[in-house]
Amino acid sequence: MRVLIVGGGVLGTMHAWQAVRRGHEVVQVERELEARGASVRNFGLVWVGGRAAGEELDTALRARELWQEIGEQVGGIGFRPNGSLTVVRSEAELAVAKQVAAAADARRRGLVLLGANEVREVNPALAGDSLGALWCQRDAAVEPRLAQPALRQHLAASGRYRFVPGREVRALLSNGVRDDHGEVHEADLVLLCTGAALGGLVREIAGAVPVRRVRLQMMQTVPAEFRLSTSVADGDSFRYYPAYRGAALDELNRVQPQPPVAAEHKMQLLVVQRLDGSLTIGDTHEYEEPYGFDVVEEPYRHLVEVAESILGRPLPAVRRRWAGVYAQCVDTSEVVHRQRVADNAVLITGPGGRGMTCSPAIAERTAEELGL
Ligand SMILES: Cc1cc2nc3c(=O)[nH]c(=O)nc-3n(C[C@H](O)[C@H](O)[C@H](O)COP(=O)(O)OP(=O)(O)OC[C@H]3O[C@@H](n4cnc5c(N)ncnc54)[C@H](O)[C@@H]3O)c2cc1C
Prior knowledge:
Elements: E1 2-6, H1 10-21, E2 25-30, H2 38-41, E3 45-46, H3 55-73, E4 84-88, H4 91-102, H5 106-109, E5 111-115, H6 116-122, E6 132-136, E7 140-141, H7 144-156, E8 161-165, E9 169-173, E10 176-179, E11 184-186, E12 189-192, H8 200-206, E13 211-221, E14 231-234, H9 247-255, H10 260-264, E15 270-273, E16 279-282, H11 297-311, E17 318-329, E18 337-342, E19 345-349, H12 355-369
Parallel strand pairs: 1-2, 1-12, 2-8, 4-14, 12-19
Antiparallel strand pairs: 3-7, 4-6, 5-6, 9-10, 10-11, 13-16, 13-17, 14-15, 15-16, 18-19
The chain binds flavin-adenine dinucleotide (FAD).
C-alpha cells in the first residue's frame, strides 16, 4: 500500500515507522523544512508513572516497550531508561507519595517510595531539601531535537520511505493529497498527524474536532558540570497526573496550596538532562486562547528557585527559552482522537502532554485498526 502521512512530528513519524515495518511504501509530508511543532519542543520524557489506570496506562506501558525496541535499532534517538524521581519536601507531599507507592498497581508502574538517603544514592546530584521521593523506574527519556531526523534516516534505509519537507498539504483527494506547490502525491491511505493545527485543512475536512490546545513555557540551560542520573519532578507534579488522585492529594491541596505564581500558571517542575549535559526545565500550562505571543518571566524565576532548592546548588545559566503548543482531547480520558475523515483518510491528533510517551503505541494501534 502507498501510505501518505501529513505531519513531520513524532506521531507522524511513528505512523511512518509502523507502515514501513509492515511492508508499505511511505511518503511523509511536512509543511516546515524540519519538524517544528510540539515534538521538538518537549522534554523527551517517556513518562509512565502518573498515567490513569486503564487504556492510558496500558498505552504508555506498551509505548515504553516500543521506545526501548526502537532505541536499540536507532541509537540516534538517545533512548535511555533513566527513571524519574518526584521529590517530596513536605509531610503532605510525602503522604501522597506513600499512598501512590502503596497502591495495587504501583509495581506495574515501577513506583517505589525512597527515603532521603536512598534518594541521594539513586541520584547523587540531588543535594537539596527532601523528605524522600517517588521513584519511577519505568520512566525513560529520548532526545526530542534528534529523534525525528534519526528515525527518518533509519526509515530511508528501507528504500520504502521518503520525507518531503517544505510542502503544506492543502487538499485531500480520492487518490491522495495536493500540496501548496500544486503537486499531487498519490496514495491509497492518508494519515493526518497534523498536531495542534486544527484550522485550515483539518477544519475543512474534519470540522470542529473535540480537541483543545494547550501552551507551555520551557527553558534549557548550558551543559551542567554535574550528572543527573534520573529525571526529576517536584511535588506539584502530583497535582497534574491522574494516578496520584486520592485522599492524600485532596489533603495536600487543602493544607499546601500551590504558591500563587505556580497556581496562576498551572505549574509543576520537571527537569531532564540532555545528552550534552544541559537541563531542559519546565513547565506552565495555558488553556485560554488567544495565547500570549511572548514568554513571561515570573514562572521561570519560580522554576529556577524550586530546581535549585531540590538540587541544593545553583542552576547552570539558562541559554534557551521557548513555548510550545500541544493538542489534547477535550475528554482527557481519551488517549488520542482518531477520526475517519474520508474513505481513504484518518485524522490522528490530541494525545496531549503524553504524546511523546505514547506515540509508538498509538501508531501501532492505528496500524492494527486499519489492518496495515
Ligand atoms: C512544551 C511541551 C512539552 C511536552 N513534554 C512532553 C513530554 O515530555 N512527554 C510527552 O509524552 N509528551 C510531551 N508533550 C506532548 C508531545 O510533545 C505532543 O503530544 C506530541 O509531540 C504531538 O506530536 P504530533 O506529531 O501530533 O504534533 P507536532 O509535533 O506538532 O507535529 C505536527 C506537524 O504537522 C505539521 N503540519 C500541520 N498541518 C500540516 C499540513 N497541512 N501539511 C503539512 N504539514 C502539516 C506541523 O508543521 C507539525 O510539524 C509536550 C508538549 C509540549 C508542547
